[in-house]
Design goal:
Strand content: under 5%
CATH architecture of the largest domain: Up-down Bundle
Pfam families: CMD
GO molecular function: peroxiredoxin activity
Shape: elongated
Organism: Sphingobium chlorophenolicum
CATH superfamily of the largest domain: AhpD-like
Order of helices and strands: HHHHHHH
CATH class of the largest domain: Mainly Alpha
Number of strands: 0
Protein name: Carboxymuconolactone decarboxylase
Distance between the termini: 45 Å
Largest sheet: none
Structural class: mainly alpha
Radius of gyration: 16 Å
Length: 142
């Protein structure tokens, strides 16, 4: 079992405070494990959740908007779902999440936005926000 340094510990505590105890415990377990892939969550704890997320340059909701936009553009639906939940915890509304999708459409294209929209809807459902919204797949459009 790996021990966490001060920055990693700070990052784990930070994301646990946003995502809740269950996520925090799973993230801590991933960070302290000594198995294939374990260095990656330790880097996330240190760089993303300590260095970047705790930097004072932007407010948390602005950071969420930036990260969500980047993940949409990079077509990363799994990580996007986590960050939509973080964004909701940081005060983003369903209307603002939809606004990001609309704003990004001319820059990243309709296929990218279709995939991202599904991930955003699924994450909103999991967070208890707008559970009655259907994905394009559920509407029979994809």
């Amino acid at each position: 079992m790996a021990e966490l340094d001060e920055k990693q510990e700070s990052g784990v505590e930070f994301i646990s405070g946003i995502m809740g105890e269950g996520f925090g415990n799973a993230f801590r377990a991933a960070c302290t494990a000594d198995r294939f892939g374990s260095p990656i969550p330790r880097m996330a704890a240190s760089w993303a959740f300590h260095d970047a997320w705790q930097h004072q340059g932007l407010a948390p909701r602005e950071k969420s908007m930036a990260v969500i936009s980047a993940l949409i553009a990079m077509r990363q639906p799994l990580e996007l779902k986590n960050h939509v939940k973080i964004g909701i915890a940081n005060g983003l509304t369903a209307q603002e999440l939809e606004g990001l999708l609309v704003q990004l459409t001319p820059y990243v294209g309709f296929p990218c936005i279709a995939s991202a929209t599904t991930a955003v809807i699924e994450a909103m459902r999991e967070a208890g926000v707008s559970p009655d919204v259907q994905t394009a797949e559920e509407k029979g459009l994809l």
